[in-house]
Amino acid sequence: MKLTQLALEKDMAQYFAEDDLSRNLFYMKSLPEDQVSCDLYIKSDLVLAGLPWFQAAFHYLGESDFAAKAIHEYEGKRLKKGTKISLGQMSFAKALTGERIALNLLQRASNIATYTSQYVEKADKYNISILDTRKTTPGLRMLEKYAVRVGGGKNHRFGQTDLWMVKDNHKTFFGGVREAIQFFKDMGSFYNEIELEVHSEKEFEEALELGVRHVMLDNFSPEMIKNILPNKKEGMTIEVSGGVRLSTLDKYLIQGVDAISVGALTYDAPAVDISFKYQRI
Fold this sequence. Notes:
This protein has 281 residues and is α/β, with parallel strands linked by helices. 44% of the residues lie in helices and 18% in strands.
């Protein structure tokens, strides 16, 4: 079994359990096993992402090599409306059983990759990274963060312990910026960095005093960001976050900003259109 398929096997078991194939065994036994030829039809301009998940759905049903060539040739590629992708053959029963799960995952990943690529195209000119967030669909975080990478973006945190992020609730609970930062310093994690989410120029000044290397400017206006950037220290990274959308992105592409995190990449990507068709051989 390929490593990709092994990594996705547990997720596929969950997805197919949701489809509840065991409800009607008579129906499952009655599906014809005749071979069909399978194709994907790209019906809107997009960045194609998620073919490993698409393939894994059919691998779960016993089709180990299905769509392998397509992954190599088309995954991560920018495709035009009207593109046809030949996938190979399988039984009608397996094609019908796996198509909705496979196509849902492929379209979800392609939505995100396509949307992310539009942000990246703008931000690359300023050497600013586009980051995702943990605002992902439960059960689909790996898929959605993968799709961000395919679209040219970068991943922020997969989980809370990847990076100690000091947020408002930490500051409120522990009694301030200094106290919240000390809590995470006391974790004793040698390699874990600390990022401080700040909401005012005063908090940014505290970050400078405390030697914080990574600062997130949350819901700062472009004017506020421009006022703060001259105080940026060598080795410090400045991340901008909070309601940035494609329509407003240009205002935040400011020299000195290192990254912009966008929750909408994963929770509000516009849909692309892909069809999965098969014909009896």
